Each structure stands twice: as structure tokens, then as C-alpha cells.
């Protein structure tokens, strides 16, 4: 006998063994292909979900900004509507001759014929 125990082992080369090894190689290639496909699909899904998430986030930010702007504009509209009402009342009053006469007396110190205008000194609240 020889000193090397592996030298005595002979490899079986049968048709069954060849088919079995080919089948194992095919299964290994299929598994590698499956893993590659799943990896590619997974990466694509992550990219897709990130894109959708980014889009939703940007839309939410835009909506919030527009809501703030809408609130500010509604408040401004309310102020302008109140101003419009005040101006309409002023226009109605300016059509009244008595109101015009009152403004003329108060602002321009005009008098009716036969009236005497008395101007009182304004009292000062601060003492010097």
C-alpha cells in the first residue's frame, strides 16, 4: 500500500454523477440570478419609495405655505371690507348737507350768517 491514502480513492465518473453535478450548478446559477433580481427590484423599490416620499413631503410643505398665505390674505380681505364699509358710510354722510356744514364749522371754522364763533383755549394736561 502506498503512503498517501487519497491516492487510493478513485473518482466515480458515472452518468448519474455528471447529471447531479450539472443540476447542482444549474440550481446554484438560478439562486444567484434570483438573488440578483431580488436585489435589483429591492433597490428600485427603495428608490421609488424615496421619490414618492420626497414628492409627498414637498407637496405638504407647499400646502402649508399656501394655507398660511390664504389666512393672511383672508385677514387682509376682512380689513379691506371693513374699510370699504366705513368709506361707503362716509360717502353717504357727505351727501347730507348738515354733515358737510358740521365739518366746515369744525375743520375750517366757518360760521352761518349771524353766528359768532367763540374759540376756547385748549387745556393742557401737563404742567410745565
From TrEMBL:
Coiled coil: 56-90
Entry-linked Pfam families: DivIC
Alphabetical list of InterPro entries matching this protein: DivIC, FtsL/DivIC
Keywords: Cell cycle, Cell division, Coiled coil, Membrane, Transmembrane, Transmembrane helix
Highest taxon of source: Bacteria
Transmembrane segments: 38-57
GO BP, one annotated term: cell division
Name listed for the protein in its UniProt record: Cell division protein DivIC
